[in-house]
Amino acid sequence: MSTMKANHNSNIHTVRKDDPPFLFHRGTGYTRHRLPVGTEVIYPNPPQEPVPDRRAAIEHAIDHPLGMEPLDALLRRGMKVTIAFDDVSLPLPRMKSPDIRQSVMEVVLERLDRAGVTDIELICAICLHRRCTPAELRHFVGPAIFRRFWPDHLRNHDAEDPRGNSHLGDTQHGEVVEINRRAAESDLLIYVNINLVTMDGGHKSVPVGLATYRCVRHHHNAQMLLHDSSYMDPPNSDFHRSCERMGEVVARTVKIFTIETTLNGNLFPGALSFLMKREHEWGALDSVKYHSSRIGLSLLPGALRRKAYTALPAPYGLTGVHAGRTDDVHGRTLTNVDRQYDVPISAPYDIALIGLPSIGPYNVNSILNPILVQCLSAGYFFNFYRNRPLVRRGGVMIIDYPLESKFHMVHHPSYSDFYHNLLPQSRDPRELERRFEKSYAENERYIHLYRNSYAYHGVHPFYMWYWGAHGMAHLGKVIVVAPREHDAAMLLGFDTAPSMDVAIGLAKEFVGANARTCYFHCPPLIMCRLPA
């Protein structure tokens, strides 16, 4: 085994001839590849130390809020309080019990009870995502809170309830601001957030999580997402400016007490602990764990393999909690997120290699279908940067993923129709938006499935396609390694290669033999900070 080459950036290792193979996530499993000498491997930061006492940190935050009075001072007998909270898309993978949402709500509810507040409702802020199941809600809030409030006072937000949402006004840009009526009419709205990435939290919580299609279409659209610098880079993002304008309208009507939490990068426990190590740190036991888990997963049929792959919850540690006025709180939150995930990069690369896991915000307990593969790679992974993209304009992204055209037909019925009926006509996000978005958004069948089953809203595949539009327009080529279905790759606009070596060769033919190449060794998450 080689030792790490000295580098001014301890997160970057330059590959040597005697290096071991490097681990790549690949769908619901993983593999290893030897990489060309000179490739720069970008590693995530190690997990930050968690706060020593979770409950004490939560109590201190709500007793010493930023820009507002303490929570106790805001409460009075007879008032109407709504507690809204993030849905199943956070965190990824799911958190080991007790979930941080449960820990925060236990403290908040104790304060409400002590103040004699009895009119309390809990709302999961799903926006246009699928409804969370009772089991998922129970995991978020814990068994005691679940028993107390389910089903009459614990529910999912319904963006299509004609009487359940309230128009609060328009921004100066003409953006409609419409949120959940119960939240809008409450004397106090408490929002419990989890921030894993810089895209989340702040004014993306209430004006998006509790919003309707009429509201979110102003920033979830092809024009904005195609040209936005990066929705992971809030200071430079038009998407975030739109959310902030909406947040200003909401704040004029609704009193909001924001509670935001940040977690460390401790994702993989016990049997999967080798996934948290750099390859040169592996011992004999790590190799045994790798081979046994890889073989074990490969022997399972698809549905069981997906379940086994996500069976072990992540032992995240709480790194911070802040409460009070949304803007003040979110600034502290972003500092904590950067402390865990920020990695400085000196200059963009010509080629980036990515091992794509089947872990995404929109396929929890589900399938990473082709639209979500495009979104996770050219959308999320591409956008994990500040200031400038990790890959130069016209460069190449290589993704290792067993791509195939499978869909979870309970969760993603409109995705299947989008893929089979619309993509053969056009991949242009602006054309798809102009010709088809409204009909999918207003389709009665999709609305029924969103409201009464566990389906994503009919418009959701459009938004995921737009998420990836900026990356697809910036990159000269996306190559997927060893897809199970070549036709699926072609329909997405991807090239294919039978192996990683061939993919790297094709990429160098495209951008030049002396191309600077990196392997983006994620997850855990990495936020690449490049010079402006």
Structure, explained:
- The chain has 532 residues and is of the alpha/beta class.
- It has 2 domains: 12-43 and 345-529, LarA, C-terminal domain (2-enoyl-CoA Hydratase, Chain A, domain 1, Alpha-Beta Complex), CATH 3.90.226; 54-263, 3-Layer(aba) Sandwich (Rossmann fold).
- It is 37% helix and 19% strand.
- The protein contains 21 helices and 20 strands.
- The strands form 5 sheets. It has a 7-stranded mixed sheet with strand order 1-4-19-14-16-17-18, with helices on both faces. It has a 6-stranded mixed sheet with strand order 7-6-5-10-11-12, with helices on both faces.
- Helix 1 (54-63) packs across helix 3, helix 4 crosses helix 5 (143-149) and helix 14 (370-381) packs across helix 18.
- It is globular.
- It starts with 11 loop residues before the first strand and ends with a strand.
- 51% of the residues are buried.
What's the number of helices?
21
The chain-level mean pLDDT equals 96
Which percent bin holds the helix content? Answer: 25-40%
Instruction: Classify the beta-strand content into a percent band.
Output: 15-25%
Q: Would you tell me the structural class of the helices and strands?
A: alpha/beta
Give the number of DSSP strands: 20
